[in-house]
Amino acid sequence: xxxxxxxxxxxxxxxxxxxxxxxxxxxxxxxxxxxxxxxxxxxxxxxxxxxxxxxxxxxxxxxxxxxxxxxxxxxxxxxxxxxxxxxxxxxxxxxxxxxxxxxxxxxxxxxxxxxxxxxxxxxxxxxxxxxxxxxxxxxxxxxxxxxxxxxxxxxxxxxxxxxxxxxxxxxxxxxxxxxxxxxxxxxxxxxxxxxxxxxxxxxxxxxxxxxxxxxxxxxxxxxxxxxxxxxxxxxxxxxxxxxxxxxxxxxxxxxxxxxxxxxxxxxxxxxxxxxxxxxxxxxxxxxxxxxxxxxxxxxxxxxxxxxxxxxxxxxxxxxxxxxxxxxxxxxxxxxxxxxxx
Amino acid sequence: xxxxxxxxxxxxxxxxxxxxxxxxxxxxxxxxxxxxxxxxxxxxxxxxxxxxxxxxxxxxxxxxxxxxxxxxxxxxxxxxxxxxxxxxxxxxxxxxxxxxxxxxxxxxxxxxxxxxx
Lengths: 341, 117
Fold this sequence. Notes:
- The complex is a heterodimer.
- Chain A is mainly α.
- Chain A is built from 12 helices and no strands.
- Chain B has 4 helices and 3 strands; from the N terminus they run αβααββα.
- By secondary structure, chain B is an alpha+beta fold.
- In chain B, helix 1 (4-12) packs across helix 2 (20-30).
- Chain B has helices spanning 4-12, 20-30, 39-51, 75-116, and strands at 18-19, 55-63, 66-73.
- The longest helix of chain B is centred in the last third of the chain and has 42 residues, at 75-116.
- Chain B has a 3-stranded antiparallel β-sheet with strand order 1-3-2.
- The A-B interface holds A 19, 22-23, 25-34, 55-56, 58-63, 66, 72-73, 210 and B 19-21, 24, 38-44, 47-48, 51, 63, 66-69.
């Protein structure tokens, strides 16, 4: 076996084992035929030093993602993963969209543009520099990402999500500089958000053109309800945004776990799986942000109430994550990893 | 509705059964070099076409010690391709007619303009 063939077979390992058993030999034969040349010296050189091009590797990675995230022809366990990834991606995008709108609403209240509401406390200032305005606008882009994905425009949603992530990327860069200068920037929190945004862009791959999209109406309703409720919660001093995430996931998790006992119908395995993933992500966010608050603490920040509540949120998230994970692993074990029949 | 690679793969199999690399070469020729199928893309599409019954295995051969599977178009595949080709042709006709009409209007406008000035 030539070094080139070994390298290509190594790339093919990203494909599910069942798929490789069916197609690997043929894919290798086709790939090697595509690399063949009449010049014996060049052929020898390619055998020893040739590598699959980035576009070849990319095509195999795209195929692996489609097969592992429940695209057409994927085995049942991959289909289950695909459903869960679609749901958890939508949950994160919904959260980002709601926070984007809520932040704008909150800003309008702070600047006195919602005069029919009680005035905010005078010590609550609002930052109006250009950078914060840009951040506010890109936060609203998440609404377009969320709606675009529900309407089936996956690629547009991916590009917009990448654009909306740029301010987080810039803020993370600034945080690294601040850290070098000896300050206490929220670097880990920013990295966690960055990572979740990158995961959501990657998660959109699970919205295959050949799989039915999730019914959009409940998600639109959640966006409207979130946009109406969350700005009020933002005014509660002991609630920060990872806390809002934690509370939302805990409430959904409890409703999901107790649903059958309350006569709300059967538990959907896809939702157990998605909520287990969401609880894991929310728990990580909660713990990381809390640790950073404590690391950079001053006499006024963080308030004791916020710390106590954050610890309670982390405990509650762990408490719902455990049964959700057990339910998910049981369901996945019962789902065939290869094609049936 | 088929994707562009699927459309060309079906077209490549109209005249005779072909193996994977044969399909890659034929698709490049049919599309005048515009569609260069990568191996991952080819087999991603091919397994779906086989799964949907549009393409089927014709025969297996061993060439230079390696497996070669030849695929052929099924009746259902030929029907799907004919429907798609008609759809593309109808779309192209609409676009061409619209472009021709606008082109004629523009040309008429340019002929009038010197007199108006």
